Amino acid sequence: MAYRILEKEEIAPSVHRMIIEARDVAKAAKAGQFIILRIDERGERVPLTIADFEKEKGTVTVIYQEMGKTTKQLAKLSAGDYLEDFVGPLGTPADIRKLGTVILVGGGVGVAPIYPQAKAYTSAGNRVISIIGARNKDLLILEDEMEKASSELYIATDDGSKGHHGFVTDIMKKILDSGEKVARVVIIGPPIMMKVGAGVASPYDVEILVSLNSIMVDGTGMCGGCRVTVGGETKFTCVDGPEFDARKVDFVQLMNRLAMYRGEETEAVEKYEAECRCGLH
Amino acid sequence: MQEVQGEKPGKAKKERTPMPEQPAEERRKNFNEVTLGYTKEDALAEASRCLACKDPKCVEGCPVNVDIPGFIQLICEENFEGAIERIKATNALPAICGRVCPQETQCEARCVLGKKSQPVAIGRLERFCADYEREKGVKAPEVMPPTGKKVAVVGSGPAGLTAAADLAKLGHKVTIFESLHKAGGVLSYGIPEFRLPKEIVRQEVEYIEKLGVEVKPNYIIGRIKTLDELCDDFDAVFLVTGAGLPNFMGIEGENLNGVYSANEFLTRVNLMKAYDPEYDTMVRHGKHVVVVGGGNVAMDAARSALRLGADEVSIVYRRGEDEMPARREEIEHAKEEGIIFRLLTNPVRILGDEKFNVTGVECIKMELGEPDKSGRRSPVPVEGTEFLVQADVVIIAIGTSPNPIIFKGSEGLEQNRRGTVVADEETGATSKCGVFAGGDAVTGAATVISAMGAGKKAAKAIDAFLKEK
């Protein structure tokens, strides 16, 4: 069994969008869930959040940044190629219902999982205020899509090349300070951004959720590699999450666990790129 | 394994025929199979020891009731094809059972010869027949005409494969749903290559497919489809989702980098071949590895860590060696390879450095007190005996619980407090009509052959259910 890549596009430098034909996954997918893919027999199993899905067409969209060997390999694939495995939908779907006003904060490729949530919260009748950010304007993704899916959209860039010069959390704080009644804040992005964002929103009377990425193998609770401490208890990101109460998450542990294979990853990338230069790939 | 000599060394018949194996010094450096299998001469010599009892107790000891004297007699006649056919009449996975069944507590434990000397090496003979057949090429088995009934099997481990084979032979259309990318369940992700080569698992799955069974990998029931939706599409469902959720001890430092559940460690090594540099999956190659637990999984994890190049691997177990649930043969193999056994020892906390990496395990000595519910004397810590074991990888192998995903979106499937599915022991029938369950999902973690036994019983009950429907 193989899964066909229907579309592939570089939407920002080293950031790619891929639309994959996976009927069963598309049919069951909900906002907040993720998939695990494997490129070929020798590949590792890599979790990626679902950036979009179309049930009728039977397609699932993923967005990824070139980081390790596998994402670099993925970046080399194009429409018409196949992935060996594409399993999902995994994780507990986001708890989306009518709450009133919801702030959605997405940073970097974290905007990808925010997008299906924006659509879902909007269609559930919420006023959705979205804040998306990146290091600079070139790295911003899904701007038009987010514009359409939200009631209001704010943009922040670290270098000020577009929108607010600074962090997404600055805008979030401003809105919370304005006295507008907000029921929930969802923050998805690099762990450090989620940690900072959770800290900033913490003093306000608002529910704060983060969606955690973590190192995992099977995605069904079997390996326990994705464990994270939430409220002093060990939870498995794949089955208990990926969304958790941000105030309770031990972000320091999460960041340390994500760094577990950093040395090996750098080595793998170096080896892979050396082979590419030799024309082996 | 060291062969114990028979009482009368002059009579060769009393002694078991030894199994050729890789020397410990060599095999601790590779993932190739430890035991090499009987030659034809070995098999004939061993088969000739069978007394062909009129009332064979060994058959009763086998959860799937293989006609043991029958197939051994056929070996004696050098009719190896007949022998494997006889085994396969009741056991669809002989190459696997011949390798990983705990024969010493099942069929071989009942062998009359065992009373005075050593029982017939039934497992080794079973393996010989299966390997003989694989070399010759497996014959397509006979299947009854289609009944038009559809059965879904959720999980492709030993219970699922066994039930699927039996149901397919009876003419039912069987579909197996597997959440991982490869079929076999624990046979694929859990048991290491050096004990059960994955090529054998692949061929056994291929045999099941030859019976007309469809295997759907990457398909998670509870996520893609709920159990209720599955019940709408199929005439009966057999739930064999195993006990995959790893248990942890809840001690300090358990989430440090370098602490693995045995499931994660073994999945990375076995299923994802992290020991092979050609594969991309990573696993930490520890120099000082501590494995916590005393079962087969702990032995597998320890021996795998050793093969990844560790200088020192120790097993920390809170009871004594006699209480270890692991197979004797596996304990012996581990010892021969140099695994250190720290018995009557329990971890108290795991220590790490500023980078969150494991540096050691603080342990405490234990002594055995009063018997607990399991009938085993329960271990009690001896105060003031804490000591430190250096470690850069710690593997927790203290058991697993059933995976809860299956219960999501399923009305009326009863589960008990331990999270297992409530099912009738004889038939596998659950509280939900048309849904049967078996294997570790019902019993909690157990053995391959007991799961197969449950698969056989359920297949019979499902067939009866379908005929009445």
UniProtKB/TrEMBL annotation, chain A:
Positions of [2Fe-2S] cluster binding: 223, 226, 238
UniProt keyword Flavoprotein present: yes
Keyword Flavoprotein belongs to the record: yes
Note accompanying the cofactor annotation: Binds 1 [2Fe-2S] cluster per subunit. Binds 1 FAD per subunit.
Pfam families for this protein: DHODB_Fe-S_bind (PF10418), NAD_binding_1 (PF00175)
Domain of life: Archaea
Location of the FAD-binding FR-type domain: 1-96
Binding site for FAD: 63-65
GO molecular-function terms, A-Z: 2 iron, 2 sulfur cluster binding; flavin adenine dinucleotide binding; metal ion binding; oxidoreductase activity
Cofactor(s) named in the record: [2Fe-2S] cluster; FAD
Keywords noted in UniProt: 2Fe-2S, FAD, Flavoprotein, Iron, Iron-sulfur, Metal-binding
UniProt xrefs under InterPro entries: Cyt_c3_hydrogenase_gsu, Dihydroorotate_DH_Fe-S-bd, FAD-bd_FR_type, FNR_nucleotide-bd, OxRdtase_FAD/NAD-bd, PyrK_electron_transfer, Riboflavin_synthase-like_b-brl
Single Gene Ontology BP annotation: pyrimidine nucleotide biosynthetic process
Protein name (database record): Sulfide/dihydroorotate dehydrogenase-like FAD/NAD-binding protein
Automatic annotation (TrEMBL), chain B:
EC number: 1.4.1.13
Keyword Oxidoreductase: yes
UniProt keyword Oxidoreductase, yes or no: yes
Keyword terms of this UniProt record: Oxidoreductase
UniProt-listed Gene3D superfamilies: Alpha-helical ferredoxin, FAD/NAD(P)-binding domain
Domain Dihydroprymidine dehydrogenase: 27-137
Enzyme class: oxidoreductase
GO molecular function: glutamate synthase (NADPH) activity; iron-sulfur cluster binding
Record InterPro entries: DPD_II (IPR028261), FAD/NAD-bd_sf (IPR036188), FAD/NAD-binding_dom (IPR023753), Helical_ferredxn (IPR009051), SudA-like (IPR006004)
Chain positions covered by the region annotation Disordered: 1-30
Cross-referenced SUPFAM superfamilies: alpha-helical ferredoxin, Nucleotide-binding domain
Domain FAD/NAD(P)-binding span(s) in chain numbering: 149-455
Stated name of the protein: NADPH-dependent glutamate synthase
Organism: Methanosarcina acetivorans
